[in-house]
Write a structure and sequence with these properties.
It contains 13 helices and 2 strands, in the order H-H-H-H-H-H-H-E-E-H-H-H-H-H-H. It is mainly alpha-helical. It has a two-stranded antiparallel sheet. A hairpin with a 2-residue loop joins strand 1 and strand 2.
């Protein structure tokens, strides 16, 4: 007896929306986007275009009243590269090199110290671990201007806490004279073309205090996501603490810490308030950053045309950094996907 099989029922395709309906949906979407686009045009796109225009002119304080600025072509850009601007001790490539070195050294120390403290506070059986984590995050909650002012006073040569502490520690052996940390013109360390004064180490100390807590928070989150079974299996295989850290902890930390290190590098590269309010860019402009130079061109010299050209340089430098760091972060994500 043969069994008859029914032919599969075919499902008719849904009718395709008409061109008018599709275009109506697109018009509705654009209408919802229009307010945001208008706001972006006013507060972002127009200022950017006007800044590009200013960079090719001699725009200054007199032109704010409506007087048209005179075009100067690429003179502003050439003056910056050649160091022919009115700021004392200005050298674009020296400041750029110091800016990179400043950001790199800070981030390396921030990440290393943050991971170390996170690992120490993540040990089993540690008492008051939550209390310690709540305390070390406090520097992040303090306004930046207060951080700069307090650390500037701490490095005061006559009444600062740093000299007082160093004097107390060395008083047994010899009397240490007051150290002018922020204004001493002597070069303490030279790294290639870089000359690092005492002010650099003072700024580095202040920013380390400020920067490692958030790195430690990120590292703590990554550490707590590591399955404990991996460490138990490693112990059964005879792995010591260093081998466990190298082969288990670090691979799990890397996907979380690398993107945050990239973010920290960009933030530190543009860190304005410590250099400007703490050391004033001194001594002799050796701790100036690109962002502080641009601020001085606008607020102190009122050279808006040169400042606009300087900001264009900053834009392309940060754009290159962003492209490089995004590729690094994508490579890491692909590696651990």
């Amino acid at each position: 007896m043969s069994v008859a099989t029914a032919a599969p029922e075919t499902i008719a395709p849904l009718p395709r929306p008409s061109w008018w309906r599709r275009s109506a949906n697109a018009r509705t979407a654009y209408l919802f986007l229009l307010p945001a686009l208008l706001v972006m045009a006013v507060i972002t796109f127009y200022p950017l275009m006007f800044q590009v225009y200013m960079s090719f002119t001699d725009y200054s304080l007199k032109n704010l009243a409506g007087t048209p600025a005179n075009p100067v072509g690429l003179d502003n850009y050439a003056s910056i590269l050649n160091g022919n601007i009115v700021l004392p001790n200005f050298d674009f490539f020296r400041i750029l090199t110091f800016n990179f070195f400043w950001a790199l050294t800070n981030v390396v120390i921030h990440v290393s110290l943050g991971v170390l403290i996170a690992v120490l506070l993540n040990q089993k059986g540690l008492k008051l671990a939550r209390f310690y984590r709540a305390i070390y995050i406090l520097p992040v909650a303090i306004p930046p201007i207060i951080v700069a002012a307090v650390w500037r006073d701490m490095f005061d040569p006559n009444n600062g806490a740093v000299n007082f502490l160093l004097g107390g520690l060395t008083s047994i052996f010899f009397k240490l004279p007051p150290i002018d940390w922020l204004n001493n013109p002597s070069d303490i360390l030279s790294v290639g073309p870089l000359v690092l004064p005492l002010a650099y180490f003072a700024l580095l100390t202040a920013n380390i205090w400020l920067g490692w807590p958030l790195n430690s928070v990120v590292a703590t989150g990554a550490l707590q996501s590591i399955p404990g079974d991996l460490y138990e299996a490693a112990e059964l295989d005879g792995a010591n603490s260093w081998q466990q850290f190298r082969h288990i902890t670090l691979p799990f930390l890397r996907p979380a810490m690398l993107p945050y290190a990239i973010y920290g590098f960009i933030i530190t590269f543009n860190l304005f308030y410590l250099s400007y309010f703490m050391s004033g860019g001194g001594p002799f402009g050796q701790t100036e950053l690109l962002v502080t130079i641009d601020y001085r061109l606008v607020q102190e010299q009122h050279l808006f045309g040169i400042a606009a050209a300087f900001a264009i340089f900053q834009f392309f430098i940060l754009l290159a950094l962003t492209i490089i760091t995004n590729r690094m972060a994508k490579a890491t994500a692909d590696q651990y996907a």
